[in-house]
């Protein structure tokens, strides 16, 4: 295995490979693929194509408000679709600018001495003859000149911080529009502008606090193991990431989540409280506290979930919007579904799935560490400032390998969604097994949440498989109906046998 990987590493260093052109081409191909998937969904959102609610859903919505609800959900879904299409194109342009030399003169003017502008003008966008400078190389040179850059790891952290600052500034107008125009227009935004900017500042600081130590650890491991030990690199980084995940599971609800939302214990006099306690007792669920989260502070959307390490005490979180918009029986049914995830050990399944995907990705990325051909395609060499490996900075190799294999991420997205959708069906089935009344109340809750969230009713199957980690409303209702019908038939058959 090791010899095969080393042979592959060597072949990937063929100087005839033009990685810059390949990566830009791959980025365009992925964008085209996602654009195609988006185009499949758009007809489902147009009144001319789908003027009324799917017939299978008509029995679940009141006749007097059915069409109005459908039209509102279609308008909301179309607005979100158009927004995501524009954002996707903007992100593609940003990626293209980062990987090309088109901004060389501007960058050289703003930051003198940060890289050399292209010496040739035969291919003004990208391609051979332009590998001596890219915006990516300029950002690295800028990081190397800033205070705190004293070696490859520290320079890498400054470099990532620069990209994070730029990314945050670019995303702020997009996020502002989404919240204060799109969401507000459809009645969902409850966020004030002070909360918006406060969240943005907290998110920025938090991303640096969490990401920088993780990246520092990964780069240190790669240097410690050496770029020739591909399998050892993968094993050690996976162990490191797994340990971080184990720490983050209990840390998130107690340290991170309270930075953005307020959590208060559910009042024991609330009608939902005894139902939650009884359900937990029935299932031997290790219930700690039941918390209410002020989701209404930012949005009208609703949800519920539990958290806690496997085999230890768990805590349940219910959005205040869910308590306000659903009956106690519906909330109980939703929690029965959530506890189905616990009973099926779905958190562990998802954790293992994530580790397997991470290991596979790391195995591929490790083939490109210290690849001089890949790095030189974007202006990096062993003489690049603070380059700690023969081919160039490790963080750049990881970044470029990630871009090179973005199609793999698309495939993994299909795979991950397939797994999570299967787990959702299992959790729904668990609610049914607890009793037919749970399944019936869960159906009512799903329809109610869908209606109040103005979620889309018609979904293209390919679009759904790629973008949705939950089955559609129709799919979940059909599965619950089949379970109820099968259960009723079994009950009837059993009764006849007893007679």
From TrEMBL:
EC main group: hydrolase
Location of this chain's protein in the cell: Endoplasmic reticulum membrane
Domain of life: Eukaryota
Signal peptide location: none
GO cellular component: endoplasmic reticulum membrane
Domain Peptidase M48 positions: 275-482
Transmembrane segment boundaries: 92-111, 153-172, 200-221, 233-255, 347-370, 390-412
Principal location class: endoplasmic reticulum
Needed cofactors: Zn(2+)
Active site positions: 338, 428 (proton donor)
Catalytic function, reaction form: Hydrolyzes the peptide bond -P2-(S-farnesyl or geranylgeranyl)C-P1'-P2'-P3'-COOH where P1' and P2' are amino acids with aliphatic side chains and P3' is any C-terminal residue
Record keywords, A-Z: Endoplasmic reticulum, Hydrolase, Membrane, Metal-binding, Metalloprotease, Protease, Transmembrane, Transmembrane helix, Zinc
GO molecular function, one term: metalloendopeptidase activity
Domain CAAX prenyl protease 1 N-terminal: from-to ranges: 53-262
GO terms for biological process, alphabetical: CAAX-box protein processing
EC number in record: 3.4.24.84
Gene3D superfamilies assigned to the protein according to its UniProt record, in alphabetical order: Metalloproteases ('zincins'), catalytic domain
Role this protein plays: Proteolytically removes the C-terminal three residues of farnesylated proteins.
Protein family according to the UniProt entry: Belongs to the peptidase M48A family.
PANTHER family given in the database record: CAAX PRENYL PROTEASE 1
Name of protein: CAAX prenyl protease
Organism: Microbotryum intermedium
Higher taxonomy: Eukaryota, Fungi, Dikarya, Basidiomycota, Pucciniomycotina
